[in-house]
Amino acid sequence: DQQVKQNSPSLSVQEGRISILNCDYTNSMFDYFLWYKKYPAEGPTFLISISSIKDKNEDGRFTVFLNKSAKHLSLHIVPSQPGDSAVYFCAASKRSGSEKLVFGKGTKLTVNP
Amino acid sequence: SQTIHQWPATLVQPVGSPLSLECTVEGTSNPNLYWYRQAAGRGLQLLFYSVGIGQISSEVPQNLSASRPQDRQFILSSKKLLLSDSGFYLCAWSRVSEQFFGPGTRLTVL
Q1: Which residues, 6 or more positions from B3, have their beta carbon under 8 angstroms from its beta carbon?
Q2: How far is A70 from chain B (nearest CA, A)?
Q3: B83 by DSSP, 3-state: which?
Q4: Using an 8 Å Cβ cutoff, are A68 and A30 in contact?
Q5: Smallest CA–CA separation between B68 and chain A, in Å?
Q6: Which residue among A31, B22, B29, B58 is least crowded, i.e. fewest CB within 10 A of its CB?
Q7: Chain A nearest C-alpha distance from B17 (Å)
Q8: Which of A7-11, A39-43, A96-100, B26-30 has the weakest average pLDDT?
Q9: In 3-state terms, what secondary structure has residue B44?
Q10: CA nearest neighbour of B105 among B50, B28, B38
């Protein structure tokens, strides 16, 4: 039973355009959501997070949107750059619990020059 | 600032051999520690987590074990490796909700 789903294994966009990465979750107890970026043969790096009390969080070119009713979140990257090419993982947790994160399977983003 | 170290970076081991991967964290105290595995074409699977010295929780039944002999040291072990143990192993630490990952160990079991 996959509690966090990233249904698109890959996404390709043109440099300068917007990249939209999607994530769905099934567990209504999740109240904290994170996005990680991972290059090959490296550990994931934390990108941005959002608490369930918000519906939007922005950090530079990265914005995360949360739709609690739909149990859906998305990561927007504007403008996309070739250096953004990586695998992006969505993760969720019950913040009041043991802080275990449940990860999606990732979406490989390719930004073409 | 906090840093997390993992070694070795890469490892090639024969089936049936033992395994020991080490992870250490600097610059923080009493962190929660985690071991993950990323198998080819799959996401990050949580293997073990620890909230303190000697406290280990296993998430999935498997051929591996974990130990936390010191506050900032987390060890992943196996007595006899299987082919299916091949993968990219990641250690992570957290204090609040964000987890921070080490550089990973690429394990190939032949």
Answers
A1: B25, B26, B27
A2: 23
A3: helix
A4: no
A5: 17
A6: B29
A7: 24
A8: A96-100
A9: strand
A10: B38
Q: Are the beta carbons of A91 and A34 closer than 8 angstroms? A: yes
Q: Is the pLDDT of residue B54 over 80?
A: yes
Token couple for A18: 């917007």
Contacts of A98 in chain B (CB under 8 A): 32, 49, 51
Q: How many helices (H) and strands (E) does chain A have?
A: 0, 11
pLDDT of residue A99: 67
DSSP-based three-state secondary structure for B84: helix
Structure tokens at A35: 């996005």
Read off the DSSP letter of residue A68. T
Task: Nearest by CB to B101, from A44, A49, A104: name it.
Answer: A44
Q: Which residue has the tokens 């010191």?
A: B70
Q: Which two tokens stand for residue A5?
A: 């789903």
Disruptive mutation site among B48, B60, B97, B107 for chain A (greatest number of A CBs within 10 Å): B97
